Every structure is written in structure tokens, then in C-alpha cells.
């Protein structure tokens, strides 16, 4: 069976879950094609290693050689840009039509494919996976109507959490066409290794892009509050990642008087990140809804931290409560609630023994609901079922024509 993936730029450092899902299908005997919005320079991974070597050999730009003109086209007036873009999208239809099922990651890519389906240019059924930005921003802008064609012509819409499913159904998606399918992690590569911080400084860590929705600002403010109310507690906060807010966040740490207890390391290689996680006790990610409506799905970084035995401190945001139950599998505060966040961090600092059971329950939660192997099995069954249903419809139509 041949599955065509429709994605943005490929491969993307912030979307390794997409590569993981593709690899899961390859491992299960599927053929995988990739149509993307530009091929990246692979600076975060060796293109000669699997699964990237196989995937890149089967990857092409939506617009072929015309992809080089994308920067020019993006500067055109809106109506002309849409017409040119649509004409160029047609250039990939022949290859996409060779697939049994199309999987679009992010709603805008699904909508793009659905337009071709509406115009009867695209044949395979479309499965679209919604992750966060593609739900939160149009919800904020009251623009979920942009998915109307997808709701009508798509075969199935999968959301990474239950919150997104409710949003899409309320926006008009048929309930039977929307289901929750979590992203997961490879538990075989993440050994559980809880360690106590009794008698030593609490090592806190965040690994994320330094953008508004990650909420690092509120982690810094909560830690400044913690130092004010409990100056005797020893802790250090390591932040791995880069992004548009790095300089403002560094300035905020200085302004709050905690710069000597905070380290900004920038982006690091995956192996180095794993080593820093091994040295750490607690993972902090107090995500928030950004001013433009952007939201998390369920952050994979939280799953990985929970699997590794770190105590996680996060927020009541989007689908995160589907992963973390407050004071059972981690600790939660409301978005931007600095006081409660500081209180949760203080509890973690002062009660390592209680946190050991929380960490163990967190590992069990991830094993039960976010195991990549099990989720890949489910996904393989989903696309196989949709392909069989499409084949049955085509057979019925052919019989009807011959009568």
C-alpha cells in the first residue's frame, strides 16, 4: 500500500513526530511518498541515515522545479498569488493520484488537498492530522470556515487531543469524520531513571522553541517568586532551545534578579539534549495561548520527560490535562498563574520523595496511552481501512457503470 504524505518544509526539526509516523509505516511494509513545501538543508540530521535516506529519496517539492519561485510568488497580491499557487499545485496531482491514501499533516495542507478533490483532480482519500496552530489560530480569528471543503471532501480528520476534536465538530466537521489520535514517543529509547534531589540543588530544565506559547516567561517569573518566598531553596534552571524570544527572556531573567541561576544554552544536538535531561530532575513547560491564538497539541517533550522519570510541571492548556493529571502524574497551574506555578515548583523542590511516585505514575501513563509503537499500529489500521473502503466504493461504481 502506498501512502502519500503532504507536509510543509521537510524535514523539519520541530516536526520529528512526522518523520516518526512515516518511519512507523515503512517498518510495517507500506510505501511512503512525501510532497512538501520545500526541502530543508537537513542540518539537524544525517540524510544518509534511515529513515531519512529512504524518505528523502521519495520526496519532492509540491511545485517541482518551480518551487524556487516560491519567495516571488508569496509577494504577489493575494488573488493573483492564489491563482498561481493553485495552478502549480496541479503539477503534483499525477504523483499524488498514484497513492492509495493521502495523509496531510496540519489543517492547511489538508485543505489544500481538499480543494483539488473538490475540483475532481485528486482521487485518493485524504486523512488530515491537526496539531495546534492549525486549530488555535483560525479559532481565534473566527476563521475555521477555511476548512469547510476539507470537512466535506476529506475522508477523516484526526486531532492530537480531545479539545481539538470538540472545536472541529463545533465548526461543522461531521462527528463521524473526526477522531482523536495521539502523537507518541519511542519508549524503547527512553529508559526510566528517577533520581532524588534531596540534599542537592533541584535541576530544572525546559527544552522548547523560545516562542510565546511555550510559556517560558512564566517559568522565569514563578522562579523569581519562589526565590522571594523561599530563598533557602537551591535550584538551577537550564533552558535548551532558540527562537524569537531568546533575548527578551534573557533580559527578563536579569531584570528578575535570577540570571545567575538560569542558563540559556540555545539549540543543541539531540544527543546533548538527552545528556542534559539525564542530569535534570524536573521538566518545566507552562504553555499558554499565544496572542494570535496559537496553542499546543500535547507536547512530545512532556511525554519524553515523563517517560524518563523527570517530574513535570506544566499548565492547564489545550490537551495537556489529557496527559498530566495534577498532583498524580505531574503538576499543573492555570495559564499565566505565576503564584500557583511558584507553589507547584516549591512543592517539587521540598518533596522529592512524594515526587518519585508521581514520576512513576507518569511513566505508566505514557506507556498506556502514548506509546509510539501501539499508536503506529493503530494508524496503520486506520489508513488501511480507509484504503479498503475507497477500493470498495470504486468497485461498486465500476459495477454500476457496466450494468
Automatic annotation (TrEMBL):
The keyword Glycosyltransferase applies. GO terms for molecular function: glycosyltransferase activity. InterPro entries: Glyco_trans_1, Glyco_trans_4-like_N. The keyword Transferase applies. Coiled coil: none annotated. Residues 15-188 form the Glycosyltransferase subfamily 4-like N-terminal domain. Signal peptide: none annotated. It comes from the Bacteria. Pfam families: Glyco_transf_4, Glycos_transf_1. Residues 200-364 form the Glycosyl transferase family domain. Its EC number is 2.4.-.-. Keywords: Glycosyltransferase, Plasmid, Transferase. PANTHER family: COLANIC ACID BIOSYNTHESIS GLYCOSYLTRANSFERASE WCAL-RELATED, GLYCOSYLTRANSFERASE. Belongs to the glycosyltransferase group 1 family. Glycosyltransferase 4 subfamily. This is Glycosyltransferase. It comes from Sinorhizobium chiapasense.
Amino acid at each position: 500500500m502506498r501512502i502519500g504524505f503532504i507536509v510543509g518544509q521537510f524535514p523539519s526539526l520541530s516536526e520529528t513526530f512526522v518523520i516518526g509516523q512515516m518511519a512507523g509505516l515503512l517498518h510495517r511494509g507500506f510505501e511512503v511518498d512525501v510532497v512538501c513545501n520545500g526541502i530543508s538543508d537537513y542540518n539537524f540530521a544525517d540524510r544518509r541515515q534511515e529513515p531519512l535516506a529512504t524518505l528523502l529519496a521519495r520526496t519532492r517539492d509540491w511545485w517541482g522545479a518551480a518551487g524556487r519561485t516560491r519567495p516571488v510568488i508569496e509577494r504577489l497580491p493575494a488573488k493573483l498569488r492564489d491563482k498561481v499557487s493553485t495552478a502549480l499545485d496541479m503539477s503534483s496531482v499525477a504523483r499524488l493520484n498514484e497513492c492509495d491514501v493521502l495523509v496531510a499533516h496540519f489543517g492547511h495542507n489538508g485543505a489544500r488537498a481538499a480543494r483539488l478533490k473538490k475540483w475532481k483532480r485528486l482521487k485518493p482519500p485524504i486523512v488530515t492530522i491537526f496539531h495546534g496552530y492549525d486549530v488555535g489560530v483560525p479559532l481565534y480569528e473566527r476563521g475555521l470556515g477555511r476548512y469547510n471543503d476539507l470537512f466535506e471532501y476529506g475522508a477523516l480528520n484526526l486531532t492530537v487531543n480531545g479539545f481539538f476534536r470538540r472545536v472541529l465538530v463545533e465548526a461543522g466537521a461531521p462527528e463521524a469524520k473526526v477522531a482523536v489520535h495521539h502523537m507518541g514517543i519511542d519508549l524503547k529509547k527512553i529508559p526510566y531513571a528517577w533520581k532524588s534531589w534531596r540534599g542537592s540543588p533541584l535541576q530544572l530544565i525546559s527544552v522548547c522553541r523560545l516562542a510565546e506559547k511555550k510559556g517560558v516567561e512564566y517559568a522565569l517569573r514563578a522562579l523569581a517568586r519562589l526565590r522571594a518566598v523561599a530563598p533557602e531553596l537551591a535550584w538551577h534552571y537550564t533552558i535548551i532551545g532558540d527562537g524569537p524570544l531568546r533575548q527578551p527572556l534573557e533580559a527578563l531573567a536579569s531584570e528578575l534578579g535570577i540570571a545567575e541561576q538560569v542558563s540559556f544554552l540555545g539549540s543543541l544536538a539531540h544527543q546533548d539534549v538527552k545528556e542534559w535531561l539525564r542530569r535534570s530532575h524536573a521538566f518545566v513547560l507552562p504553555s499558554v495561548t499565544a496572542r494570535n491564538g496559537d496553542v499546543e497539541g500535547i507536547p512530545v517533550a512532556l511525554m519524553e520527560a515523563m517517560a524518563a522519570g523527570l517530574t513535570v510541571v506544566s499548565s492547564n492548556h489545550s490537551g495537556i490535562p489529557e496527559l498530566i493529571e495534577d498532583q498524580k502524574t505531574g503538576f499543573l497551574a492555570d495559564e499565566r498563574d505565576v503564584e500557583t506555578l511558584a507553589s507547584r515548583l516549591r512543592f517539587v523542590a521540598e518533596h522529592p520523595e512524594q515526587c518519585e511516585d508521581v514520576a512513576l505514575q507518569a511513566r505508566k501513563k505514557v506507556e498506556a496511552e502514548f506509546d509510539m509503537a501501539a499508536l503506529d499500529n493503530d494508524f496503520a489500521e486506520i489508513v488501511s481501512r480507509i484504503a479498503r473502503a475507497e477500493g470498495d466504493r470504486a468497485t461498486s461504481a465500476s459495477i454500476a457503470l457496466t450494468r
